[in-house]
Amino acid sequence: MPATAWERQPPSWRDAKPGVIEGALKRALARPAGNWFVLAASTQLRADRPFGRLVSGTEVVAWRTADGAPHAGPGACPHMGAPLCRGAVSNDRLVCRWHGLALGEEGFPGWSPFPVHDDGVLVWVRLDSVGGEQPLEAPVLPVRPTPENRLVAVETLAGRCEPEDVIANRLDPWHGSWFHPYSFVGLKVTGAPTGPESADADDRFVVEVAFRVAGRFGVPVRAAFTCPEPRTVVMHIVEGEGTGSVVETHATPLGVDRQGVPRTAVIEATIAASDRTGFAVAKRFARLVRPAMRFTARRLWRDDIAYAERRYTLRSSGRWPA
Q1: Considering all CA atoms of the chain, what is the largest pairwise distance in Å, rounded to the nearest integer?
Q2: Segment 44-68, tens digit of pLDDT
Q3: Which of 221, 40, 219 is nearest to 116 (CA)?
Q4: What is the DSSP pairing of strand 88-90 with strand 93-95?
């Protein structure tokens, strides 16, 4: 599919109705998450060293035991508050480097493990004191390609905004060809929620777009965007090259910076699938393919983080036009 010049493509601002985007966002934010937050890519949790991250201002440390099971808990040592993410993992236990206190899944006075879930792509942590919802036994997950027929890459960036600003960005597909001309050709939104009372089955955005592969040419696909829970937007390829592939965008609140501005991590999982023979070859060279997949996600989100940050700036100053 050849592209027209950037400035000659049809304007999309008339179709990108703020009320439709804000309505879809409001409904997404009202869906239950069961207090689950994406912590990291599954590959980031290891049995030889701990992983740490702030989640909504809460220090979280995570590690694996030798059997591959994930574990997580508060990131401050209960003895004197040392950062456990700078500790060590030994004999399946998290060991504090300050005084050698070893912590395990049984807990310790003043230190109780958090529920954790590894879905094979991402690791989730449940923070009941942060989420404030009715807890769910497991996070709400979208439909994905089977592990035998997929290639996964996860990229993480952070911006000065709130999770809703990240989700709002993804619920505005009309900006694609204008804001990302290096990646998208001829984007057209063919389906959108009709109003504030849209049923869940209809609460999705459908686009026809070509992913740019060389010069002005792209590979056409049909994709659908949905929100299974308040901090996740999922894009499913429903027709065209890579049908069944999924891109999951997860927004995890980190906390506030020294200026009091909220920070949010964008953790994006690209889960590619294909029946083509060449895809099996690509899987064999996954170590070479994954960096290219992460680069693509990072390039897009460098722009989209700016979009989300701008939205937050306008909202927090009372200037958001929507």
Answers
A1: 65
A2: 999 999 999 999 999 999 999 999 9
A3: 40
A4: antiparallel
